[in-house]
Amino acid sequence: MAAFGYRLFGFQVYRGNKRTPVNLKDCNGEPFKEIAERLLKALSVGTAVGDPSEQGQAAIEESGNIGQPALRVQEVRVVDNTIRATAWAGRFGSHEKAIGDDAESDSDIKDKAASNLYRLVFAFPDDGDTGVLAVETIGRSCPVGPLTGWMRRKSREESTSGDIEGVWWRISVHPLADEDRLAEMIREGQAQKLVLVKHSVTAGRTRDIKDVEITASLAVGGRMDRTVEVVQTWYRRNRQDDGAGEPVSAAQGVRQLAAIVGPQVAGMDLDDGWVEIEDPDGQVKRVKPNQMAEVFTYRLSEHEPAVTPKFYAAARRTALALQPAAKVAIDWPTS
Fold first, then answer.
1. What's the pTM?
2. Which of 59, 288, 22 is closest to 172 using CA atoms?
3. CA distance linking residue 19 with residue 211, whole number of Å
4. Which pLDDT band, with edges at 50, 70 and 90, does 163 fall under?
5. Contacts of 148 by beta carbon, 8 Å cutoff, 6+ apart
6. Do the beta carbons of residue 12 and residue 129 sit within 8 Å?
7. Rg for the chain (alpha carbons), in Å?
8. CB neighbours of 328 closer than 8 A, spacing ≥ 6?
9. Is 241 left (phi over 0), alpha (psi -120 to 50) or beta?
């Protein structure tokens, strides 16, 4: 069974495609909390299918729903300076049949999206441009991308619903993490090795297989400090819209890790690589430029989700501990 937990994200809001975040208390004369509540409720009317981009929606028109992600929000409510909701998220065609305790109760679900229910909390500052979003995880799944993408699309649709096109709002999220804590986790020995991989195509060209795997200890030479520097660079540059430069690609990350190991490896045609790190819960995770959020997944329970008060209290406690380093000031309600 999958473990249940949560991830925390800082979020900022931009007017259209502009690159300067707006103050969350005044988005063109309206608090973003009210806008977010309206957008979430708009996502509860029906099921949002596929990627919200124009290309994604065109693909559905051409090929149908099978294989496409699905999202539906429900139970939206405002509590003080937070919005709390639940969202069903899954994928069409991911399962053929739901079987019961006897054959007569089976249901064919090939044309439906087998979904799980995720809880989420938006927390807003009294003043400022950065809020916090807590989203439940089930195993490695977390619907933050579809959620914020569809909120953006709904905002654009709302802006064009009248005779005159109005403003629309774009939500940008980044993992809420303490950069110093990330470095500390590596130096304390929670990260012990680098793994570099080269894949090859099978003789029949039917699939990729792992051809070469190189494991390198961080205890050799200055690898530990250099790894800390590289991972911190990934974290800083992959925060969207922060002005620190273009995000680091997966291919660039592999080259950076190979250079840490040495010239005998740097010249190889490697296509994957990561820092292997064990979090305080004992969970081994792979740290890559495009896989930073998973480092800060906080586990809550096994086999079944924790009750909602426990979920909220844990997310609140973790957020309050991380907010000072992230320069975020939010006074979360106690319950």
1. 0.80
2. 22
3. 42
4. low
5. 11, 171, 172, 173
6. yes
7. 22
8. 10, 125, 128, 130, 131, 132, 176, 322
9. left
What SS3 state is found at 89?
A: strand
Distances (CA, A) of 58 to 54, 90, 93, 161, 215: 6, 20, 19, 21, 43
DSSP conformation class of 275: E
Q: What does the alpha-carbon distance between residue 319 and residue 175 come to, in Å, rounded to a whole number?
A: 11
Residues in the chain: 335
pLDDT over 50 at 241, yes or no: no
Alpha-carbon distance 295 to 291, whole Å? 8
DSSP 26: -
Q: How far apart are CA 76 and CA 88, in angstroms?
A: 13
What is the Cα 293 distance to its own chain's centre?
6
- Give per-residue pLDDT as tens, 36-49: 999 999 999 999 99
Q: What is the pLDDT of residue 242?
A: 45
